[in-house]
Amino acid sequence: MYKKILVPLDGSEMAETVLPHAVALARATGAEVALATVVQFTLGAAGGKLDAMPEAAAERRAALKAEAMLYLKKIQRDLKGQGVTAGCVVLDGDVAGDLIIYAERERVDLVAMATHGRSGIDRFVMGSIAEKVVRGTLKPVLLIRALPATPRPVDWREMNVPPAL
Q: What is the mean pLDDT of each run of 10 residues along the chain (165 residues)?
């Protein structure tokens, strides 16, 4: 059913929560995983200086892309150790837009990504890459809600569970 699964990552542990799901699907279907990240290069506070020095801006952009590729290559090695074939791509620009274009161009069968599950004002201010991808592509999208770690381990002996009948 799936031949190529796009897994967008942003370098965070929360984004990586999708990986076990993508691995399970890839192993079950024999699909290849396409690991992707999008580098957003902004000039920021140094904008005036870098704008006047295009070579410095180009070097910084190249350094960001190289760092992103190293990150993806590490994940790729981890997936290979689990028996999954994975490729890596570093995109440059608008996160959601570039992921949608890549999915279409590379004939991806499924986009599997984590969502931070923001709501209310956080969602309005921060935006939602996952929502933009869902709304912007015709490809199926698997969203895994990335939850923060449980504050304390659950002691199942403390649970009042009725006996099985």
A: 95 93 96 96 56 75 93 98 97 94 97 76 59 94 78 50 51
Dihedral of alpha carbons 97, 103, 109, 114, sign: negative
DSSP structure string for 84-105: --EEEEEEES-HHHHHHHHHHH
Would you kindly state where each structural domain of the chain is located, as residue ranges?
A: 94-105+115-135
Whole-number Å distance between alpha carbons of 104 and 30 = 20
DSSP state of 162: P
User: Cα–Cα distance between 146 and 148 in angstroms, integer?
Assistant: 7
Q: What does the DSSP assignment read for 47-69? A: HHHHHH-HHHHHHHHHHHHHHHH
CA–CA separation, 75 vs 14, rounded Å? 14
- Assess contact for 33 and 5: CB atoms under 8 A: yes
The greatest distance separating any two alpha carbons of the chain, rounded to the nearest whole angstrom, comes to 76
Q: Is 112 helix (H, G, I), strand (E, B) or coil?
A: strand
Q: Could you tell me the sign of the dihedral formed by the alpha carbons of 129, 25, 4, 13, in that order?
A: positive
